[in-house]
Every structure is written in C-alpha cells, then in structure tokens.
Amino acid sequence: MKKILAVLLAAMFASVSFQGIAQDKKAEKKAEKKAEKKADKKK
Questions:
Q1: Residue 24 Cα distances to 17, 18, 21, 40, angstroms
Q2: What is the pLDDT of residue 20?
Q3: Which helix (H) or strand (E) holds 36?
Q4: Global pTM?
Q5: Closest alpha carbon to 12 in 23, 20, 25
Q6: What's the Rg (C-alpha) of the chain?
Q7: pLDDT in tens, 1-43
Q8: What angle do CA 18, 2, 16 make, to 5 degrees?
Q9: CA–CA dist 2, 17 (Å, integer)
C-alpha cells in the first residue's frame, strides 16, 4: 500500500512540475514576441 501511495505522489509531482515547465516556456515565448514588437517599433 505504501508503494502505491509513493508512486501516486511521484506521478502527481512529475505532472505538476511538467505543467509548470510548459507554462514557463509559453510565458517566455510571449515575452519574446512582445520584445520583438517593441524592437520593431523603435526602428
């Protein structure tokens, strides 16, 4: 029973951390696009 709980906890942690990484990448892409637009306006 303890092994099942440990595996479930590990799976939950992995999925949550993976979602966080995916959100970070999306946020970085949005920031890059905004930076590019600002650079284009300055030219």
A1: 11, 10, 5, 24
A2: 84
A3: helix 2-42
A4: 0.49
A5: 20
A6: 19
A7: 899 999 999 999 998 888 888 888 888 888 877 777 777 766 5
A8: 10
A9: 22
